[in-house]
UniProtKB/TrEMBL annotation:
GO terms for biological process: maturation of 5.8S rRNA; regulation of gene expression. Residues 92-143 are annotated as: Disordered. Belongs to the C1D family. Keywords: DNA-binding, Nucleus, RNA-binding, rRNA processing. The gene is C1D. This is Exosome complex protein.
Amino acid sequence: MAEINLNSTVAEITHTVDTIHTLIKPLLAMPLTEALSKLSPEERAQMDVLIAYSINTLYWAYLKLNGVPPQEHPVLKELQRIKLYIQKVKEATSSPEPPAADEKAVEQFLQKTKGELDASKPATPAKSKGKRKSKKRKADSSA
């Protein structure tokens, strides 16, 4: 069996915990609802699954440290469920590159559409304006 250097392991864990504390210190400085309200919906979803996964992982470690086999505990199913949600959030937040537009095809389409619009516009003769005025005069004279 390989020898474990307990001092270096403890030092590494202490360093990791200090790093985590430094990273989450801004979040701990304000209420969680306030911190979450400043995030976009995508960031909030990521934060929600991160918090759920972190809490359940800590509980899993707590069980393990106290001699309870976590493989037989419901926390394992919860961790698996949260991993599925992490995957769903990743899929939802990763956006593929938008397809590049073919500039020549777009220009041809616009010219064709403009030509069709110009051809479909009815010519408005000046007489139609006069007829409207005469109807209005008839309405005015009958009153």
